[in-house]
Specification:
Layout lengths: L7 E5 L6 H15 L8 E7 L5 H6 L9 E5 L3 H8 L4 E2 L3 H4 L5 E6 L8 E5 L3 H4 L6 H17 L2 E4 L2 H10 L6 E4 L15 H7 L7 E4 L8 H13 L6 E4 L10 H12 L5 E5 L3 H10 L2 E4 L8 H9 L3 E4 L2 H6 L4 E4 L4 H10 L11 H33 L18 E5 L6 H13 L2 E3 L31 H11 L3 E5 L9 E5 L5 H10 L4 E4 L5 H11 L5 E5 L6 E7 L3 E2 L37
Parallel strand pairs: 1-2, 1-5, 2-3, 3-4, 5-6, 6-7, 7-8, 9-10, 9-12, 10-11, 12-13, 13-14, 15-18, 18-19, 19-20
Antiparallel strand pairs: 15-17, 16-17, 20-21, 21-22
Helix pairs in contact: 1-15, 8-11, 9-10, 9-14, 18-19
Length: about 600
């Protein structure tokens, strides 16, 4: 990329069931395409292997024709062509990917170290409203956010509120930051549809308010339902239409709780729950509604607020920071979580409650949208250019944590394989290589054929063939025959730092103890132990030099950990996401030490 040219922006699929993630990627494409030809960047759709399936392709079908190139991150060429056609490009490594792109965004709550990319943190809801987040997810997100703060060079936030939260929670982060405000980009067909036809299709009354939110706890439907109940008791009943998925994965009984509340409040006949509906139908219902209500207690950047803006709708919205930052032209704020204040605002502004389809208010909103769309596209272009500039400058030095040991300057990984879950383990090793690690050929058994276990074609992949049958009985035979797989860092990871991560079957801990000590290992990673007690017992008997143990099973997706106390005593098993795991015992900060996880990535990330 030359200084004056437009960058090739890789935009990865980040979701197929999370509507916010799907819409975000779609609108990044639409924003980039809205720019004039002399400014428009080349837009490349990147589909990670875990989203190479029919649902994800269907959700993003709107932007497939807009992509200059489509890249599937897989070695399975046949599957990629079956889903995306013969023109699709396939690649397995970052090195291959960056032959086709200059910059990658969004890297959702993750880091792509060493490559021009921007991590994306939409919000810190788990910090601001921890009561709505399961403990395990809360700890996981904290670990990921901390890793991003420590390792990312460039982070994009959805709002000033999110960026302020980041600086508050991670004041020592050296990452550069940028803000990209999401903007809804309307389709011409939206304004050609007939809201009455859609209303009649769903059997809805002529006059109604609408709320377009997933039925999650923080969306605060309870406040909305309470306000509708108060209006009914006052003799001013009004119908409410609710769209959006009805399941909250964090509280599977929440939707039934809301249904019980409707019955208790006596407003079942006034509230019409449609669930998830077609996007075009949703837009027509928005156009035909009297107004929109957004009672959410927390948002990263509310899509329904932007939808209402582009349609010229009056919207009653909670007074949280992000909503005030969005500042819609026809917005009316009420105190978050206060049904009495919402009721009062609905009564006071009843004259503003009118359908807007075909009105001058809607036309003016359409005209105003053009400038916002262009600004959205220019912001994306600016972020991409700045990202390329940051990574083309002198490499940024990441200071070693205070707890880092000083005994060398190389990162060493020692690993072996389990005979099941081969593709995921193979991806882990490849991801280590992508980070800059290089294989040490002296430890490779020459009698093994290094090949691709997925395609079975001979090649240069640093991965051995594995037995196809009776993996349990072949476990020891395979592992004994295959010496430790030793990777030596090709680059300095942190000044004066040396550490190792090993993956060996527990039955071989004793036999390999001497070799492990030779590599100065500070952590032991077992790819597929059958049980935590067995692994812990064998390890304690084998060595007293490990400060911590991590076990993860790519077959069952189960994960365990334990601390090794002085003398080789095993401490109580604990969650790897808890403080009891004592991450400071690693020579590199957890979770940035490369280790196996069940998604087959060797960067210590838990997607």
């Amino acid at each position: 990329m030359t200084p004056n040219s437009s960058p090739r922006i890789g935009i990865p699929v980040i979701a197929d069931t999370w509507l916010g993630g799907v819409n975000y990627v779609i609108h990044l494409f639409l924003a980039g395409c809205s720019l004039p030809e002399d400014l428009r960047p080349r837009l490349i759709l990147v589909i990670p292997e875990k989203f190479l399936r029919e649902q994800a392709i269907t959700e993003h079908r709107r932007i497939l024709p807009l992509a200059d190139t489509i890249i599937a991150r897989t070695a399975d060429r046949q599957l990629a062509e079956q889903l995306l056609g013969p023109s699709v490009i396939t690649c397995s490594t970052e090195a291959e990917l960056y032959q086709h792109i200059d910059f990658l965004f969004p890297v959702h709550s993750n880091v792509l170290e060493g490559w021009p990319a921007a991590s994306w943190i939409p919000d810190f809801q788990h910090r601001r409203l921890p009561q709505f987040c399961p403990k395990a997810e809360l700890e996981k997100r904290d670990i990921v956010d901390r890793m991003v703060a420590e390792r990312a060079r460039y982070i994009v936030f959805s709002s000033e509120a999110a960026q302020n939260d980041f600086r508050c929670f991670f004041p020592d982060s050296q990452a550069s930051g940028a803000i990209l405000h999401f903007t809804t980009i309307a389709e011409e067909s939206w304004f050609q549809g007939n809201p009455d036809d859609v209303r009649k299709h769903f059997g809805l009354p002529e006059h109604f308010l609408i709320c377009c939110n997933q039925f999650w706890m923080h969306k605060d439907h309870k406040t909305l339902f309470s306000a509708i109940s108060v209006l009914k008791r006052m003799g001013k009943p009004i119908h409410l239409v609710c769209t959006g998925p009805t399941q909250d994965y964090r509280n599977k009984g929440y939707f039934n709780e809301l249904l019980g509340l409707l019955k208790a409040l006596g407003i079942e006949e006034l509230v019409h729950i449609l669930g998830r509906i077609d996007r075009n139908d949703q837009i027509q219902l928005l156009r035909g509604s009297l107004g929109v209500i957004q009672p959410s207690l927390f948002e990263g950047w509310s899509t329904v607020v932007e939808d209402s803006r582009v349609l010229g709708k009056t919207i009653f919205l909670s007074d949280i920071d992000v909503h005030q930052e969005q500042a819609p032209e026809h917005g009316i704020y009420f105190k978050a979580g206060d049904p009495a204040d919402l009721t009062q605002k609905l009564l006071t502004n009843s004259q503003a409650l009118i359908p807007t389809h075909g009105t001058e208010q809607e036309e003016q909103a359409r005209r105003d949208a053009d400038q916002r769309i262009r600004l959205f596209g220019l912001q994306l272009l600016r972020i991409a250019k700045e990202g390329v500039r940051l990574f083309s400058a002198a490499p940024k030095t990441i200071s070693a944590p205070k707890h880092t040991r000083s005994s060398g300057n190389a990162l060493t990984i020692t690993t072996s394989i389990a005979p099941k879950g081969i593709p995921k383990q193979r991806r882990a090793v490849l991801s280590w290589l992508e980070l800059g690690l290089k294989s040490n050929p002296s430890t490779h058994p020459k009698k093994f054929l290094w090949s691709n276990p997925i395609s079975r074609r001979s090649g240069s992949s640093p991965w051995p063939e594995a037995p196809k049958k009776r993996w349990v009985s072949h476990w020891s035979t395979l592992m004994i025959s295959l010496p430790i797989f030793h990777l030596q860092a090709a680059r300095s990871v942190a000044p004066s730092t040396r550490t190792s991560s090993c993956a060996v079957p527990p039955t071989l801990c004793n036999g390999l103890n001497r070799k492990l000590k030779d590599h100065s290992c500070s952590a032991l990673v077992l790819m597929c132990p059958t049980s935590m007690p067995r692994m812990a017992t064998c390890t304690a008997r084998a060595s007293t030099s490990f400060s911590s143990i991590e076990s993860c099973c790519p077959c069952t997706k189960k994960r365990n950990s334990a601390s090794v106390l002085p003398g080789g005593t095993i401490g109580s098993p604990s969650s790897p996401f808890s403080e009891d795991f004592q991450p400071n015992r690693f020579a590199l900060p957890w979770p940035t030490i490369p280790c196996m996880n069940w998604h087959g990535r060797g960067t210590g990330m838990f997607a």
